[in-house]
Amino acid sequence: MSITFEIPGKRVLSSAQLTAFQSSATYNTITSYIEILNASVVGARLTDACSESLGINAILHLLDRIEQLAHETPPIENKASRFGNPAFRSFYDKVESVGLAIRLPSCLILTSAVFKLAPSLHADLPGLDQNATPELTTYFSQAWGNRERIDYGSGMELNFLCWLICLDRLQVVTASDHTALVTRVFWRYIQIMRVLQSTYWLEPAGSHGVWGLDDYHFLPFLFGSAQLRGTSQLVRHKFVRPKAIHDPEIVDELSKDYMYFSCIKFINSIKTASLRWHSPMLDDISAVKTWEKVNSGMIKMYQAEVLGKLPVIQHFLFGSILPYEGPPPPSSDESHHGDGHVHEGWGDCCGIPVPSAFAAAQKEREPGNRIEGPGIRPVPFD
Question: Which is nearest to 143 in space by CA: 99, 185, 92?
Fold first, then answer.
């Protein structure tokens, strides 16, 4: 039976719709897929060999092209601001506008809309029904951040996960690829996002980062804690406990193999003071006795704080592969913004613009910017 694909769009604007989403087939698809990927990397290291199909290789090639676009789009001079660099919008437009011109007769003129809906980036994915390209590219484009606000958060990270779900449903990848989807594809995505965050000083979406884990990401900690389940396999650190994140030597050594420790090393590289100051949730989690409990807690936390929060899910995109089946949106007299979303509480959703930690770190390195003297302590972040 043929599938009628559609361009994904926002559907959830109220608490009632959010509740319906949480009991829907799409919600179950997302949570089940997270659990499948999570189980696929238990005890697996980033450096371990794993099955890499033609689909995985094609996806990695596509991601390489995204990083290349970033290197081809340097930040503009913007010393007066610690907020997002406007050059990110040029990068974003390039991601959307890498079109099919190289595959079509030169006499054919494409509109910008067609360029956006049919990027050549997806043309080489094996076995992909090209009718699905507009639906896929919507999730893909939205996974790199918000063009207007020049920010990034767990909602954009969720778009990348949805892109992977769609590729799985469309059989570009199969069950044998699940480990590689995490340790190769998803981790490559995180590495590219770090390039974008550091190059364009992307602001954390909302006003509070990802609930004390990381300014931008959640899933690397979820999958990363799965990798560390059963760490008795480790040689030098036979019984690595969650509290090991406070040991710089262990963090440095294990960062090559485990997402969790790599993220801790990254955070420590751009923020001063201790985790208690800038990542209180990570500091609290370090007191948990086992990685099994950390991992199960991360899954519950993701369901509650990402998939269960209206400020995040009101931006979720529903299409044909991940459909919306709940009640219609609220009446137009309900208070909402012109861009089609509501606020349920101060500081959520769009939040108050927060300068990038990369900007603060850069200013800290510049000579003459530090205030020094008796009793003066460095500010851990701003």
Answer: 92
Q: In sequence order, what are the beta bridge partners of 317?
A: 10
Identify how many contiguous H helices and E strands the chain contains and give both numbers.
17, 4
pTM over 0.90: no
Q: Which two tokens stand for residue 37?
A: 């990927």
Q: Quote the CA–CA distance of 358 and 315 in Å, as a whole number.
A: 26
Please state whether beta strands 9-10 and 151-152 pair in parallel, antiparallel, or not at all (unpaired). unpaired
> Which pLDDT tens digit goes with each residue over 216-246?
999 999 999 999 997 655 545 556 899 999 9
Report yes or no: 220 and 295 within 8 Å, Cβ to Cβ. Answer: no
10: helix, strand or coil? strand
Write b or e for each residue in 285-304: b if 16 or more Cβ atoms lie within 10 A of its Cβ, otherwise e. bbebeebeebbbebbebbee
Q: DSSP letter at 24?
A: S
Read off the tokens for 223: 């999958």
Q: Which of 126, 110, 113, 120 is nearest to 140 (CA)?
A: 120
**Domains of the chain by residue range:** 9-363
Give the CA-trace dihedral at 323, 328, 331, 334, to 10 degrees: -50
